[in-house]
Amino acid sequence: MNNFSYPEKDALNRFIAARYRTAWLWQIVFLFALLFAVVSLSALILNVADGAFGYVAYEYKKDPAMISPRPLEELTVPELLAALKANLSAGAFAKLDNESPLAGRSRAELLGLVEERILLVKTLETYPLFRSLFQREQIAAEVKEKFPAARLEFRAWLNAAFITSPQSSRAEFAGVRTAILGSLWLVSIAILFALPVGVGAAIYLQEYSNRKSLLNRIIQTNINNLAGVPSIVYGMLGLAIFVRAWEVFTSGALFGVTDSNGRTILSAGLTMGILVLPLMIINAQEAIKAVPDSIRQAAFGVGATRWQTIWHHVLPGALPGILTGSILAVSRAIGETAPLIIVGASTFITFDPQSPFTKFTALPIQIYQWTSRAQGEFHAIAAAAILVLLIMLLSLNATAILLRNRFQKRM
Amino acid sequence: MMKKISSFLFVLSALALIVAACAPAVATEAPVAPTEAPAADPMAMYAPDAVTGDIISAGSSTVFPLSERMAELFQNEGYTGNITVDSIGSGAGYERFCKTGETDISNASRAIKDSEVENCKAIGREPLEFRVGTDALTVVISTQNDFVTALTKEQLAKIFTAQYTKWNEVDPAFPAEAILVYGPGADSGTFDYFNEEVVAPFYLNQDGKADVAAGKTALLAAKGAQFSEDDNVLVQGVAGSKYAIGYFGFAYYNENKSTLKAVAVDGVEPSQATVDDGTYPISRPLFIYSDAKIMKDKPQVAAFIYFYLNNLDANIKDVGYFPAPADAEKAAMDAWMAAVSK
Amino acid sequence: MLWRKSNFAPQQSDFAPQQSDFMNPNALRKKIRPAEGAVEALLFIVGVLTVFITISIVLTLGDQALLFFNDPAVTLAEFFGTTQWQPQAGQFGIWALVSATLTTSVVALLVAVPLGLAAALYLSEYASPRVRDILKPLLEVLAGIPTVVYGYFALLFVTPILRTLLGADRVGVYNMLSAGLVMGIMILPLISSMSEDALSAVPRSLREAAYAMGATRLEASVQVVLPAALSGVGAAVILGVSRAVGETMIVAIASGAGPNFSFNPLEAAETMTGHIARISGGDLPYGTLDYSSLFAIALMLFLVTLVLNLISQWFVAKFREQYE
Questions:
Q1: 10 Å Cβ neighbour count for C279?
Q2: For the complex shown, is ipTM > 0.90?
């Protein structure tokens, strides 16, 4: 025994008060840590949103007077149709008409077409959101001085047209529809692969194999190591195996598809699946480890087989952790760029993916491409695309989050 | 309980497949429309709406905006097939064109190397070069810098290889402040070109010729030089300090005229006029490569290249580059004619 | 539900021995369940799959890396002995890149581990369930932001702040500190989410026992719950280390493209991953020494991650406690 003598009376009260004070102080520290994370997140999102909305100074390269002396906003549908027919080549007009009859389109759509194809909108300067909100007059004065002939308009670069249009080389008319679909396909394939395989591997490692065996420890270290392999190396792996070695499978030749090569959504999805697999396995393992052994013993006690125990008792208890793993995996898969480029994602592609055996693009690739351009309007649509990606991420994770909240219980 | 989970998993996978399968029905199919003849009648077979099929193009990220614009215009004019353009770097583009034979057109911001030509020949392709434009390398300083307006190539070489470390060594009239050097990394075509044109001529080997390798070593070993692979990042760096200097493509300078100034090289400022008549000393060529056999087997590729070459002048400035010299453009068109009539 | 009478109403006949039980020699034998064996075999295959992935990675990388090491211009002594990495100039000292990787990872972990753990403790022990249900997914959004965004955030937002705080002459425009800080913010949700899961899974009985002894909430959390959850927390930290070492985009953008042997976080330096990303997307021709050096770097990265993971695993195993 040491010489510690428990304090008495006043000393005791002060001792207890000191402990509670320490506890309260550390609680503040923990809260600050949490707030730091929340503040960083807000700073990031505000930073992004700052670029996705704001004033834009633009002009038309061709004079609108060439269509009609009246202002564009007043033109009627027949006048716009006539302008299109007169100024577009026969081939272009025919193609637009075939996509969707021009006579049946709305006035806004036709006006948009006139601006895009005939008048050729050119963005001169974009302004971020906070400047646009708080320095409106300054911006107006600046624009008047630098670009006297320009029009100034508040533009939300993230709008319905942005989400539903295919890509374009002009930032004002570009959309992310193809990229959204590509990303959805990719993440679906990745999770469809990684979830069962990851949980299965975790079950094997935790329930079936002898945890002290050398094989188990090698596999364990191996998985931890794989989690640290840079995504680009997974890209190279995907290229070597899925795109080249398994081309028969991933190009669809096995299923009768003849006009593609190995650079398909399937290859990329499987590559992303392997990329998030270690994350999935580690999370599932921890979740299974956390299920108290007493539950397993109780199940064995009433005569359940090993698999019955796992399926009916262990997995339900491990579900919250597995769902966290899937949330983190989806978050990782949706934001990766480098492996996709190596496996063969296209940067400009205008047709929607109809099957897993086609070429594709993904949101992170568009974002990366647009942020590296010189013109400011591309940065604006990159910011809009980032917002789209975050919204997509939240929706994909929403199911998992709700389920996790429901199943998480304190035992 | 397990039933709930199984049904949940089923619903989740079903949802994923449904979402994926429910791609909007707007496909880019359109039956062939009445043809449009851009030039004489024999060219009607190369009109955008007269051809269909796949066109696969990949390569330089510098040439990408131009190829993207051309691909979009080609599709706007009635092309019913699919064009994909990948921005992966000139090296990777040549790899896909010459080694694995996956692409029909290779975009490049540097000329093809002999080793790559060998690879192409090994798979039965003869690379055909089409010059499509010019990128003027602009040496920039911050707008806060009020003492520099023009520098010679020699001064630039010495600045970027850190032989001059302070501004007053360049010119005694300049302040005695350290020069902050920014530039692209060794993997970039811009770096290579800057080295060949500006630095290497001052590093002569025994034959009296420019020693490219020595120039590269000197550039990379320059003390205090900041390299970045992203030109927007370089813009930030140079604009941030009065004593900074850097170089990158003209488009990045053009978009940031409020914070950057261009330095006249050997007395010539970069502009449409000086690039056109060739007096601006550091402007690098942009290319696309294809092969006559591909153009024959896939007429849509020939049509696209024809459209590309014909619509360059109208669009290249908008994308941020300069047109190639008139004789280079003519040579490109001649090469095309020769390839399709073989 | 098992006890509702309608579900389970034993009849007399259920307990009386049947004729078949006496005469049937199989009556007391264990029921053969082929599915169990099949399931175990399937799970074994899946479990060992990861080993095949590693082997494939090593083979894919090793193939080209061998080309690199066999080249006469490269000697192992130079590779492991010198500190300048400029393949275009014939210098192949790997430590220039390794030092940057280590520096940025250490900065990132110094941010992510304490803050992540603290956030997890707060969410798990102090926050009300409603707050936790909202904040935990919110933090996980941080994990989903594309790394390109983080890179530009580090360059355009964090670096200017650092330059104002610490002096523009000491902090370069590209520096490892801002890249490391932002990487830490990116890894934070990884650590906080997994740790929170581990902390929540600790049986309530332990906490209640601690409270019964008179512990404050802090003492119960840190001295009782945290050690019990150490396995999960350790796994989270290991994952965090792996992620920090393998991160590409943030360092490529914010930390510069010039290899530099330095442990000073205020300087610019290129990491192993940043170098790989830059060269593979650049204009260099494939098949050159510079290109095959990428694979050697990737193998080296594999090794560095392995060493760091082994250290972390040993650390965690030492302090793990097991309940039940």
A1: 24
A2: no
